[in-house]
Amino acid sequence: MKTEPLVLFRLLVLSFACGFFLAFGRDVICFLCRILARLFKRKYGSRKVKTVLQMLQDVIFCLAVGLVLMVLLFYYNEGRIRAFSVLALFLGFFLYRIGIEKPCGRFSMLASDKIARLILFLIARLVKPLIRLWRGFCKRIAKPFVTYGKRIHERRLQRYQKARVEQLRTLSKKGFVNIEWTM
């Protein structure tokens, strides 16, 4: 275990800075989740989308915090947990939440809404014509197969009809003796 004051001070400062940047990263993830929620709101419903995105956001954030804390402690303290490092990480996180998140949150809400609208507009203007082109292409490719399938079906019907007519002719020569009438 390292006990050098400069190494421990560096661990303290890095823990504080990592907490600050983790809070910023959480805001970025929230921003992206708001955009995704706006995009998928019409298709899956607002409540389901928000629940799933919140779960993913929490899982990603918890994994990031654990990874950062693990790397800091292994690199600077040989893997031993220092309480001041964990507290500095949380202090950096909460200072960001108290100081910077609230003013940026309003901007983030407006920006995520505008970006989601822009993405939906681009999808409407770019993707829909591509889908129409694809459908037209598929129709043109499928047309010979459809006409050939219809011809095959018509030939089968003609063969069936010829066989049935021939069968009825042979039965008529015998006088229709073994025909069962069903109603």
Architecture overview:
The protein has helices spanning 5-44, 46-77, 83-99, 101-174. It has 183 residues and is mainly alpha-helical.
Task: Provide a compact summary of the structure.
By secondary structure, the protein is mainly alpha-helical. The chain contains four helices and no strands.
Write the layout of secondary structure elements.
Blueprint: H1 5-44, H2 46-77, H3 83-99, H4 101-174
Largest sheet: none
Residues in helices, as a percent range: over 70%
Q: What form results from the Cα inertia axes?
A: elongated
Number of strands: 0
Average the pLDDT over all residues and give the rounded result: 83
The low-confidence parts are none
Separation of termini? 96 Å
Radius of gyration: 35 Å
Look at the helices and sheets and give the structural class: mainly alpha
Strand content: under 5%
Defining traits:
4 helices, single chain, 183 residues, 89% helix, mainly alpha, elongated
